[in-house]
Design a protein that fits this description.
The chain has helices at 17-26, 45-62, 76-88, 103-113, 228-233, 243-260, 263-282, 309-321, 346-363; strands at residues 6-7, 68-73, 95-100, 117-123, 146-150, 152-153, 158-159, 171-174, 191-195, 206-211, 289-290, 301-305, 324-325, 336-339. The chain has two domains: 6-14 and 262-363, Aspartate Aminotransferase, domain 1; 18-259, Type I PLP-dependent aspartate aminotransferase-like (Major domain) (Aspartate Aminotransferase, domain 2). The two termini are 25 Å apart. The chain is built from nine helices and 14 strands.
Length: 364
């Protein structure tokens, strides 16, 4: 095994080294308390300060306008597949609409259909999920309760770079895989949510940014932990939240602000990393073949195939020995996948690019 290891896992994913180092230094005693963050009361001032900074960092990075609430909730993005329709589908005759560009959109729509009518208004399934729709292809009904899309499909490596047009219908987004990867106009969204374990922290929480007028629409009888209104009124503290995850979100967003310099600088960094790998794929003469169409290729999850599954297995074995880990594609699609989220250093992507070039030289 190489001395330097780069983790390209789609999640749980690489975390910023400065955040990990501070967490290590404070693991046994947070701010001199003699207690770990995992031991302090969630009702303490220390916990309140952690949540407050994590929220403020997110608001600053994204430019979250007034009239939006930031929540830290249990269950990751998968629970939001259910919470969104539970809270927003209230009312007789209401339906939701879903734009499906990959596997996670499929899962979100299936969960929503358990709560009410969830219409698919566009799906890329017939083309094997290689692109996002053109504006005219996803016609939105003005009476829909909301329109849901997945901004970045982790498995297929397809990303939206502009929001779907939905008129006055609230736009809901699962942004798990590209959350804080680039600036986005939050004011275009009704709900923007993300699981923590890809770009901002370890598993255990979802960040939910919700427009205030969409809070309080849940039907009577909804369990308290699933009601945005209850969670908002209690400032994410209705019950014991995943404090260590929120603490790591605080440290990771602090890194994004202070070390990287905000989301414009983050986007430049992320595009530089992605372009290295796409250039290696496009310049391989067909030895490497990318999955997504060029205009829709993710800057977070680079997916590709080799000429044979035997070569893919060899690639993975040799990459692992070189310290380039977790490059196997999702079990549902196979191939190779490099997840190069915010915290993946440029040096890691350079190492993978150079490995790809050498592997092709030896085997092409």
């Amino acid at each position: 095994m190489a001395n330097t290891v780069y983790n390209f896992c789609a999640g749980p994913a690489t975390l910023p080294k400065p955040a990990l180092e501070q967490a290590r230094d404070e693991l046994l005693s947070y701010q001199g308390t003699g207690m770990s963050v995992m031991e302090i009361s969630h009702r303490s001032k220390w916990a309140a300060d952690i949540i407050a900074e994590a929220e403020e960092n997110i608001r600053t990075l994204l430019g979250v306008p007034s009239g939006y609430t930031v929540l830290f909730l249990h269950g990751g993005a998968t629970l939001q597949f259910s919470m969104v329709p539970m809270n927003l589908l209230g009312g007789a005759g209401k339906h939701a609409e879903y734009i499906i560009t990959g596997s996670w959109g499929v899962k979100a729509q299936k969960e929503a259909a358990k709560e009410g009518e969830a219409r698919v208004i566009w799906s890329g399934k017939d083309d094997n999920y290689v692109r996002t729709p053109k504006p005219a292809e996803a016609a939105v009904s003005p009476d829909a309760a909301y329109v849901h899309f997945t901004s970045n499909e982790t498995i297929q490596g397809v990303e939206f770079f502009a929001e779907p047009e939905t008129g006055d219908v609230p736009l809901v987004c699962d942004a798990s895989s590209d959350f804080l990867a680039r600036p986005v106009p939050v004011e275009r969204y009704g709900v923007l949510y993300a699981g923590a374990q890809k770009n901002v922290g370890p598993a255990g929480a979802a960040v939910v940014i919700i427009r205030d007028d969409l809070i309080g629409k849940a039907p009577e009888g909804l369990p308290s932990l699933l009601d945005y209104k209850v969670m908002a009124e209690n400032k994410s503290l209705y019950n014991t939240p995943p404090m260590f995850t929120i603490y790591m979100i605080m440290l990771s967003t602090r890194w994004a602000l202070k070390d990287i310099g905000g989301l414009k600088a983050m986007e430049e960094r992320n595009r530089k990393k992605a372009n290295m790998l796409y250039d290696a794929i496009d310049g391989s003469g067909g030895f490497y073949k990318g999955h997504a169409e060029a205009a829709f290729r993710s800057i977070m999850n680079v997916t590709w195939r080799l000429p044979s599954e035997d070569l893919e297995a060899q690639f993975l074995k040799e990459a692992d020995a070189a310290g380039l880990l977790q490059l196997k594609g999702h079990r549902s699609v196979g191939g190779l996948r490099a997840s190069i989220y915010n915290a993946m250093p440029v040096e890691g992507v350079e190492a993978l690019r150079d490995f790809m070039t050498e592997f092709q030289r030896k085997n092409g």
